[in-house]
Amino acid sequence: MEDPGPSSAAPEPPQTPPPPPVEEGDGWVLLPPSEVEGVDAPKVIHWEDLQQELARLWSLSVALQASRERKAHLTARLESAIQARRAFLQQDNELAEMRQSLQQHTDHLGDLKMHTKKSSEDVEDRRAQLCVSIRTLSVASKTLGTARTNLEEANKLLSGENGHGRLKNIEQKLRTRQQYMVTQVAWIYPVRPLDEKSPDHKPGYTPSIMKTCNAESILPDGSRKRPLAILGLQLSKPTAKKTGYFGDKTDFQKPSTVLGYAAHAVSLIASYLNVPLRYPLRFGGSRSHVLDHSPSVEPSSMTSVVSSVPLSTSMRTMEFPLFFDGQETTRSAYAIFLLNKDIEQLLNYIGAESLGPRHVLANLKQLTMIIQSQQYISTD
């Protein structure tokens, strides 16, 4: 029996059972007919070519499955690469921030290093100064220790039998002796108001040893305006009418005698107090003199006793008469001024002040009264 030609109708192939439904996840997807390519003109495959076509379809299916797996693998790798790229970019940004922070930290460390270097130099300078101060303090400490030792020894000497207490006792005895001697001088040359005859008659006698505005402040109450006298003689300058060659000599002898008494009293008190007078006295009774060792001034050129303009000066010692002889009285007035300066020196020595440059007897009385007071003996 011959095979039918190609124009003859071929027998219908046996119907193959429909493939089992593909479950989700097996890689097969059911598509609607409208999405299948060539559904309107299906390809006719002969029976003898079916096996070959099935094999080809199977190989294509296997290749498609492999392509899909490769695609999925590549997709996974691509996603992994994208994730790695994102992580890399994030790490790069973090690294840039860390690099910037590190640069700032490095700059800060540089500033700290410069500050530390400067501080180290300052510390070295201060250390050198401190070493000098320590050496100075060490020397001062040794000196202070030596001084403290000397002070302790001095305190021991002062607190001993021959110490400060003994010196105070000796000073008090010396002042008591000086007071006694000056009291004797005050009894020999008493200075009191002119109308007061006896030292026992002193009603309301309240003397004051403080300096006031006038010379009569040391007089007893009720006799402030009375003139002072020494041994009943008042110190008064002869008037211009009585000066001359034919004047009464008694008018010159009385003030000269008063000045002699005052000069003798001042010289005795100065010797008892052991005070060298600035203007020494050459005692000669009523013919005493005052010596001036400073550059002298010619008295003939003086217009006043206190304030004068010298015309010629010399370094020799000048003597000024402490008396009036009826001749030039300017030298005698200057001698009285120097005598008052000596009394003022003694007043300053015992801590008092003068009553004025024209109050010889008042200053002398104040000097004797202060020395005779109880405050003079007290050494506290």
Automatic annotation (TrEMBL):
Pro residues composition-biased segments: 11-22
Region (Disordered), start-end ranges: 1-30
Compositional bias annotation for Low complexity: 1-10
Protein name per Swiss-Prot or TrEMBL: UV radiation resistance-associated gene protein
Provenance organism: Urochloa decumbens
